[in-house]
């Protein structure tokens, strides 16, 4: 016997919605709310900003402006921002858009005035615009908090514009922004930011005076180098310091006259001016304050001094390090170098550049000088450690240089007691050989070039009158040459913290 069973009386159970479905529903509700809400003043700005960010054009323009600002920190921030954007964009286009094929939002609820003139046709998740904006802004901020704070509102507005114009759901924007931030940190993992690098210079010294307001500092300014605006900012930050302005051949005399009345000697200029000031500071036993005012400023930047704030913190806090000083001695010349010393094509390049720069300008003179030097038929003939060798270049760095692109790069330690010696062997194709040496690491060896670390270098058999370059200056070398180090000989102000 069977009993009747009424299905209408049976309890019903509804399967709980999946987490993905719940998030999608919430995302849609937030999108509808944003579409119906009034955004004061946004109609004129956000659609244009969204279009400007197409293909990263906005961020490349911002990066270009930062790079042209003249600030090394801004240039690094621009490069890091663009690199982070590139990683984020590549990830979005190869993985993000293909893994989740989410359709774009329906535009019914979005006022026509807000909509983009050309609607995107790719899938919606994640937002590439938001990823690029977050990646660029985060990359900039990791290198410079100040510039990051300036860029962040623009990046946020670009991300918000994607919801405002109906191009993306809010979840797409959040996912894209998270991916962009992750890309910036991934780039930092591969290429550390300045504050992650080892502190340049060691050891710290405690016998250097703190100079509040710059009192006791005599700063000699090379007016032929740098920008007056930077010097004015330093004057304002150190009102009690004495500033002496001069140029060219007046600089050595000005430094010598300043030394007896100074508690610390300062120099604003390029590497050649810094070299001259270091000689005077060594003779008088004074600490040196270096303010970058030239074209390259290798020594100042390796110390961690890039702008007014860096030097002011060091001088007022009495923060300083002891650094090595390179020395060279020959029959006809002797001197010191804080950065580099070289024989071969580089001194000739400098000399040729000086010959042509007055006629055709600096940049074109570089090209003409390089072409002239690389057309040479015969390398330099020297005897190195008892072995006669043909060389296109003999380079000695004051402390070990890290490899960075096509230049000698930067130094993490300015008191390692070593000479970073690199040679480019003679032979055919000097340009190829020099390029290979420039791209090599600090201890590399190949048929073209060799690199090693020494404490002393002896060179003989040099043709008298051969050009010799040190810290961007050129003189003539004698037949016998010795290069060595004064370990921790010079005390130099530098900030304890890198901002």
Question: What does this entry look like structurally?
Answer:
By secondary structure, this protein is of the alpha+beta class. The protein is 42% helix and 20% strand. It contains 15 helices and 16 strands. Strands 1, 6, 7, 8, 9, 10, 11, 12, 13, 14, 15 and 16 form a twelve-stranded antiparallel β-sheet that branches. Strands 3-2-4-5 form a four-stranded parallel β-sheet, with helices on both faces. Strand 14 and strand 15 form a beta hairpin. Helix 4 runs antiparallel to helix 5. The N terminus is likely disordered.
Summarize the structure in short.
The protein has 499 residues and is of the alpha+beta class.
Main features:
499 residues; 4-stranded parallel sheet; disordered N terminus; 12-stranded antiparallel sheet; single chain; alpha+beta
Topology, please?
Blueprint: H1 19-36, H2 42-52, H3 57-67, H4 72-99, H5 128-143, H6 145-164, H7 170-190, E1 204-205, E2 217-222, H8 228-237, E3 242-246, H9 250-258, E4 264-269, H10 271-284, E5 288-292, H11 298-303, H12 308-317, E6 320-330, E7 334-337, E8 340-344, H13 345-360, H14 362-374, E9 380-384, E10 387-398, E11 419-425, H15 430-438, E12 449-454, E13 456-460, E14 466-470, E15 473-477, E16 481-493
Parallel strand pairs: 2-3, 2-4, 4-5
Antiparallel strand pairs: 1-6, 6-7, 6-16, 8-10, 8-14, 9-10, 9-13, 10-11, 11-12, 13-16, 14-15
Helix pairs in contact: 2-6, 3-4, 4-5, 4-7, 5-6, 5-7, 9-10, 13-14
């Amino acid at each position: 016997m069977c009993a009747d069973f009424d299905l209408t009386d049976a309890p019903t159970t509804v399967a709980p919605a999946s987490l993905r479905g719940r998030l999608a529903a919430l995302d849609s509700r937030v999108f509808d709310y944003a579409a119906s809400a009034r955004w004061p003043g946004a109609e004129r700005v956000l659609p244009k900003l969204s279009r400007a960010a197409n293909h990263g054009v906005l961020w490349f323009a911002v990066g270009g402006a930062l790079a042209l600002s003249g600030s090394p920190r801004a240039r690094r921030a621009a490069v890091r921002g663009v690199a982070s954007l590139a990683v984020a964009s590549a990830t979005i286009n190869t993985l993000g858009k293909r893994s989740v094929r989410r359709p774009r939002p329906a535009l019914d609820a979005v006022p026509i005035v807000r909509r983009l003139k050309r609607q995107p046709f790719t899938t919606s998740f994640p937002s590439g615009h938001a990823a690029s904006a977050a990646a660029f802004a985060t990359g900039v901020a990791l290198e410079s908090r100040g510039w990051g704070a300036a860029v962040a509102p623009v990046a946020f507005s670009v991300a918000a514009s994607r919801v405002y114009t109906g191009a993306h759901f809010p979840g797409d924007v959040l996912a894209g922004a998270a991916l962009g931030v992750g890309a910036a940190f991934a780039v930092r993992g591969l290429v550390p930011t300045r504050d992650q690098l080892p502190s340049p210079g060691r050891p710290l010294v405690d016998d250097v005076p703190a100079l509040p307001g710059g009192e006791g500092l005599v700063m000699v300014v090379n007016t032929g180098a740098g920008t007056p605006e930077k010097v004015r900012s330093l004057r304002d930050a150190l009102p009690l310091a004495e500033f002496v302005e001069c140029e060219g051949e007046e600089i050595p005399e000005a430094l010598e006259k300043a030394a007896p009345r100074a508690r610390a000697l300062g120099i604003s200029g390029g590497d050649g001016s810094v070299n001259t000031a270091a000689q005077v500071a060594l003779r008088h036993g004074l600490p040196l304050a270096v303010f970058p005012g030239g074209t390259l400023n290798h020594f100042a930047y390796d110390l961690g001094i890039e702008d007014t704030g860096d030097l002011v913190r060091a001088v007022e806090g009495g923060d300083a390090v002891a650094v090595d000083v390179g020395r060279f001695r020959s029959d006809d010349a002797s001197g010191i170098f804080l950065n580099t010393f070289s024989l071969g094509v580089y001194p000739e390049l400098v000399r040729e550049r000086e010959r042509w720069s007055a006629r055709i300008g600096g940049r074109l003179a570089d090209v003409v000088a390089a072409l002239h030097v690389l057309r040479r038929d015969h390398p330099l003939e020297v005897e190195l450690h008892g072995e006669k060798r043909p060389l296109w270049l003999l380079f000695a760095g004051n402390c070990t240089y890290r490899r960075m692109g096509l230049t000698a790069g930067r130094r993490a330690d300015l008191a390692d007691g070593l000479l970073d010696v690199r040679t480019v062997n003679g032979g055919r194709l000097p340009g190829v050989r020099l390029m290979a040496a420039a791209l090599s690491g600090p201890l590399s060896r190949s048929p073209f070039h060799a690199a090693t670390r020494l404490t002393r270098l002896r060179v003989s058999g040099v043709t008298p009158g051969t050009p010799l370059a040190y810290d961007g200056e050129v003189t003539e070398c004698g037949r016998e040459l010795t290069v060595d180090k004064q370990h921790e000989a010079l005390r130099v102000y530098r900030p304890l913290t890198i901002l």
